[in-house]
Amino acid sequence: MKNYFYALFAAFLASCSSQEKADLIVYNAAVYTVDSTFSKASAFAIKEGKFVLVGDSASVFGAYKSDSVLNAEGKAVYPGLYDAHAHFYGLGQKLDQADLVETQSAEEVVERLKKYHSEHPDRVWIIGRGWDQNDWAVKQFPDKDMLDKAFPNNPVYLTRIDGHAAWVNSKALQLAKITGKTKVDGGDIPMKNGQPTGILVDNAMRLARAANPQPSETEIKDMLLKAQEVCFSYGLTNVGDAGVSPEVIDLMDNLQKKGELKIRLYPMVSINQENVDKMLKKGVYVTDRLNVRSFKIYADGALGSRGACLLKPYSDAPTTGFLLLSPKELENFVKQIANSEFQANTHCIGDSANRLMLNLYAKYLKEKNNRRWRIEHAQIVDAADVPTFGKFNILPSVQPTHATSDMYWAAERLGKERAKNGYAFQALFQQNGKVTFGTDFPVEAVSPFYTFHSAVYRQDAKGFPEGGYQMEGALSREQTLRGMTIWAAYGNFEEGRLGSIETGKAADFIILEKDLMMAPANELREVKVLKTYVAGEKVFERK
Questions:
Q1: DSSP assigned state of 383
Q2: What's the rounded Cα separation, in Å, for the pair 428 and 380?
Q3: Element (H, E) at 21
């Protein structure tokens, strides 16, 4: 009856000559605008890619008519979702590699590789990603022997789930010219009997990657378009690509201008002096769908591979991890960025890396500012350092699923007391009233609904642990949705045109099968996107 009323109402008002023409009207919806008051609406009109009126059906149909009218059938409608920190190009690459996620042993990794190799017999290099020794019965790094036996003639390069370690075979070591005498700063090459074991950590990975064949421009284009397809299916309309070359950014720009790449991107330029020189000369570059205004700095590695830089040694190994760049090099880059319009976005996992970068930021930001510099991950932050975020308006850019992935073994790495300083999203939020959320895909799953569930309930897919993991760090549903929309837009300097359903903003929105604000906790991870729109254009519809 309600739908019938709306149809009659729309037909009647469509005859009124005083109405303006809209490109699309959506009605009978549960619209979460995510505006300053977190208000709800039931309808909106879109014209030339922007919301021109948001309100109830009567007001929208009273002011606008359209040849395209969508009855949302009472479904929840949200702003297009952000992933503030991911690896968009990396996702495209992973889709073309052997998938090693959730393997339960080194032997299972080899079996998957054999299947992959049989399906791609023309590929000389066997490349995969996603293994994690913490998921295995034997929780130690594997060695090259098993890979050598299975693939004596093909170089093998397998990236760990966190992207901060690789497992390679002898053929790959040979092509990379890595021997028992090879040294590397900001990385590690574990040895056994004076020879490399086949594990490369952080900067050591570059030596083997340099020997990998590089994808062609056509292959990169295909990877980007495949990544876009996946992101749209999860309701992501804006993705931060955390560390990419200027050349790939130029290709993104070209594809967007051609209308092939419709997703909005915030690529962070990978830090090195050549890239800094090039981008500072070019300046901040912003189009309707591309926002190039930041550098990705890498302070340390990951907790899972013990490359995160800690103030005190790991509880399960005699090391404090390491920095990927020296303090002098890090300060040099921060100083150059401070003298430009660009943002500094620094990967910091360990409490030592976080302290170092927070203090460096403070030195150049000098109290309150509007630079919106970010700490990416802010994973283990000593309690004494948390106030630095607030004092200098530093934005924490965090990934809630890291907490629920690491919770099984984090205390073993850190010790119970230090582990309490980890994944403290609520404490970080309290500093500036904002926190931005991402997944870090393909390190984690692409789904933003995993992010939502992890941030609010701090549990895995099976509801473990009962009551949630370190719940003092949890956020509310409203806070979490803001972190995935308007606060993420703020982190990109985009809150004036994106991130909420408000008049004058770009018409990016999604329609979900279930309401994130109301669905039971055990259903959140399985929420499906029905439709995704960017600038009023439908870019995904579930069949």
A1: G
A2: 11
A3: strand 20-21
Q: How far is CA 352 from the centre of its chain?
A: 23
Work out the average pLDDT over 228-232.
98
Q: How high is the pLDDT of residue 36?
A: 97
CB 224 within 8 A of CB 89: yes
The three-state secondary structure class of 227 is: helix
Q: How far is CA 168 from the centre of its chain?
A: 26
Model confidence band, residue 1 (pLDDT cutoffs 50, 70, 90): very low
For helices 273-282 and 327-338, the axis angle rounded to 10 degrees is: 0
Q: Tell me the per-residue pLDDT of 124-169, one tens digit each, with 9 for 90 and over.
A: 999 999 999 988 988 889 999 999 999 999 999 999 988 889 999 9
Provide the token pair at 162. Answer: 């966190």
Give the bridge partners for 53, in sequence order: 45
Residue 134 confidence (pLDDT) = 87
Q: Is 518 exposed, middle or buried (0-12, 13-18, 19+ CB in 10 A)?
A: exposed
pLDDT of 209: 87
Give the Å distances, CA to CA, from 64 to 6, 22, 53, 55. Answer: 14, 6, 9, 12
* Arithmetic mean of pLDDT, 513-542: 98
CA torsion angle 14 24 479 411 (round to 10): 150
Q: How far is CA 221 from CA 93, 224, 254, 497, in A?
A: 11, 5, 10, 28
Closest by Cα among 226, 228, 253 to 97: 226
